[in-house]
Amino acid sequence: MRLDGKTMVVTGGAGVLGQAVAAVAKDHGANVVLLDVVPDFTSELGRTLTVDLTDQDAVQSCFAEIGEFHTLANIAGGFDMGPSVYETEDAMWDAMFNINVTTLRRVLSAAVPILLAQGSGSIVNVGALGALQGQGHMGAYTAAKSTVMRLTEALSAEVRQQGINVNAVLPSLLDTPRNRSDMPDADFSTWVNPQDLATVVCFLASDAAQAVHGALVPVEGLV
């Protein structure tokens, strides 16, 4: 699962999972570029760039600055519980789709042409295990993540013949400080460790997964 000589772009690079992916990728030989909307963030794991991933022009400029790269880990996204479907207002729908779907679409529109021009590369997106079916009080989130999963499959069908691997991981509950704060009485040992999820992401990004196309890989932990 080596990534020697490869440049990996990680969106959501300032977050818990983004940092974990960057750390595992670096350990396996990659040069890492971390993108996030957080102003002036820095990381010892690689080069950092601040960009609003919902802004098409900003994303295009960012990837023009990055230049050649080999693998893309689309980690940027977000979660919120919500009211019932019929009570969910536009702001909630827009927020979930902007942070999970619009960011992905903006990045793909800038990144995929670069990979196609090179004739090789890999893309790993983040869906959600819970989005395999609807969940109560999570309608907007599961709808958004389901869209990410369908876009992963569609893009894979479109570019696999041009040497591009496109896959996604589907985590269950991720062990993060926010989740621990929100669910203090839970058994954290059953949750998915970010480093374990990052290892799966890096496998899918590596040449070891060159025969894997359009896969939605569950990473469930012990939940």
What would your notes on this structure say?
The chain has one domain: Rossmann fold. Helix content is 41%, strand content 17%. Strands 3-2-1-4-5-6-7 form a 7-stranded parallel β-sheet, with helices on both faces. It is globular. The relative contact order is 0.16.
What is the element layout, followed by pairings?
Elements: E1 7-11, H1 16-27, E2 31-36, E3 47-50, H2 56-66, E4 71-74, H3 90-118, E5 121-126, H4 139-159, E6 164-171, H5 177-182, H6 194-205, E7 216-219
Parallel strand pairs: 1-2, 1-4, 2-3, 4-5, 5-6, 6-7
Helix pairs in contact: 1-6, 2-3, 3-4
Radius of gyration: 17 Å
Helix-and-strand structural type: alpha/beta
CATH class: Alpha Beta
Under CATH, the topology is which? Rossmann fold
Helix content: 40-55%
Q: In the CATH classification, which architecture applies? A: 3-Layer(aba) Sandwich
Main sheet characteristics: 7 strands, parallel
N-to-C SSE string, H for helix and E for strand: EHEEHEHEHEHHE
CATH superfamily: NAD(P)-binding Rossmann-like Domain
User: Tally of extended strands?
Assistant: 7
Mean residue pLDDT: 96
Name the shape in a single word. Answer: globular
Q: How many independent structural domains?
A: 1
**Proportion of residues in extended strands:** 15-25%
Neighbour order of strands in the largest sheet? 3-2-1-4-5-6-7
List keywords for this structure.
single chain, 223 residues, alpha/beta, Rossmann fold, seven-stranded parallel beta sheet, 7 strands, 41% helix
